[in-house]
Amino acid sequence: MRLDKYLAQAGVASRRSSKEIIAAGKITINGEIVSEPGYYVKENDLVAYQGMKIEKEHLVYYLLNKPRGVISSVADEKGRKTVLDFLLEADKQKRIFPVGRLDYDTAGAILLTNDGQLTYLLTRPEYEVPKTYLARVEGLISRQAIKTLKQGVEIENYQSRSTLVRVKEHNVQQKSSLVEIVLIEGKNQQVKKMFEAVGYPVKSLTRIGFDFLTLKGIKRGSYRELKIHEVKKLYANKKK
Ligand code: URA
Description:
The chain is an alpha+beta fold. Helices cover about 20% and strands about 30% of the residues.
């Protein structure tokens, strides 16, 4: 594996910053400074950063069905439950973190991994990873509102991009609607703000899809490990 990739996978820094660290002569291999990011790390090479040995971490990938009332970070100063609380003790030592965020009161699909490179790719806006949400909104949503959402609405001086929106249910008794929406961008609380902007506030929100991954077979509060081919597909799907 290339040295820059090795450092990124070991969680030292992003791939880009790893290149800079290497070029700055801060990495030694078997005691010698190596300033070439393309250096091919061999099985028995001893890689060190500022004198500290760097070991490649075993990479893990989990898809969690996050319940509401859980924070999507690795720790919470208020002591609230975090997405890591659902993992086994042994996993918690692996410096796993969530890929992106879901609000405290949003449920659904969230990826947990210690692969910094994949996290980078999946969270960069230019890679346009589609995320599918089911929103229960107040009121019987109008055709006009759906059209506006599809075309893009203005939220806080930002024009949301055109997107897929589908009404799944109009509940006349409860005066609410169930709407599916796919976003390829991820502004803070974007779904809630978009529905708010067209006059139908979100009552509850669930992310049912992250890229091609769905919640099929994963109960709320449970998770599953991704298959190798799924990890490869997550990498491959990104626009070059
Ligand atoms: N949009 C929201 O409003 N909340 C989320 O948690 C995710 C997307």
